[in-house]
Design goal:
Length: about 270
């Protein structure tokens, strides 16, 4: 979001002098009234950094663009109306926007500004009796992270036998790793494989222990290769005719994270 300075033009009213013989005091009052400026500038309400309300019927990114257009229109009219925000919720859908994928999934070392988890999933039933279930989820300041919400909303049946594959923008936090470990210990018929774009706070001891426990419970932890990013693009992104080429340092960053993950799980 960028702040913009509004420009205001002051229209001066022309005062028609009907009588040339007006006294000097009257002329001074007219001149003073015309040229006098306010002693204090009028301050516009500061723009709040809050994010726009999420619409369940709209796909990711559309509500933010609409809110930005509304704010822009208000500013052009010299007015600003703050946007009311509800609590953030888990967003689900079949495909995400190209912008969110390219920004959130980029496997940079320092993930500044990437404060949400995008989770693309595939659920294969035992024996391949049904078509695989595919979709994506995202969270931001939600009561449940996307990893936990997946088992609440997508796969709530604990007795279901299936193989689950995730492609996530970052590895689970310590709390989510502990919850996933418990789920895998309870659901013996569940197989989980997680492909991570980045490792979240991998230097923190609680993260290291959480990932080790998760792997010990049977979860396969992998880092996303360039071909995995291409697969996510082709399967989970609303790309239309746009093509995807992995960024320049994609392979290099993958090698970096693979080394870190090996150190954690050794």
């Amino acid at each position: 979001m960028a702040d913009r300075n509004s420009r205001f033009s002051v229209k001066k009213k022309e005062k028609k002098v009907e009588n040339k013989g007006s006294d000097d005091k009257e002329k001074e009052k007219v001149k003073e009234k015309t040229l006098k400026k306010p002693e204090k500038p009028v301050k516009k309400p500061e723009k709040t950094p809050e994010q726009p309300k999420a619409d369940e019927k709209k796909k990711n990114g559309e509500s933010e663009a609409a809110a930005g257009a509304e704010a822009k229109s208000s500013e052009e009219n010299g007015e600003f109306q703050p946007i009311e925000l509800p609590p953030f919720e888990i967003v689900t859908g079949e495909q995400m926007s190209p912008f969110y994928f390219k920004f959130q999934f980029r496997n940079v070392e320092y993930s500044s500004g990437r404060n949400k988890t995008l989770l693309c999933f595939r659920v294969d039933a035992a024996g391949g009796s049904t078509e695989p279930l595919k979709g994506y989820m995202e969270d931001e300041h939600a009561t449940a992270h996307a990893e936990e919400a997946f088992f609440q909303q997508v796969l709530p049946n604990p007795s279901q036998e299936c193989e689950v594959t995730w492609y996530v923008s970052s590895s689970p936090c310590a709390e989510c790793a502990a919850k996933l470990t418990t789920i895998l210990q309870q659901r013996k018929k569940l197989r989980l494989c997680i492909f991570c774009s980045r490792l979240f706070d991998w230097e923190q001891p609680e993260i290291v222990e959480g990932l080790k426990a998760l792997a010990g419970a049977g979860c396969k932890l992998r880092m996303m290769k360039p071909c995995d990013f291409l697969h996510v693009w082709e399967t989970y992104v609303e790309k239309e005719e746009e093509s995807f080429t992995p960024w320049e340092d994609c392979q290099e960053n993958y090698n970096y994270y693979v080394e870190k993950l090996m150190d954690i799980l050794k």
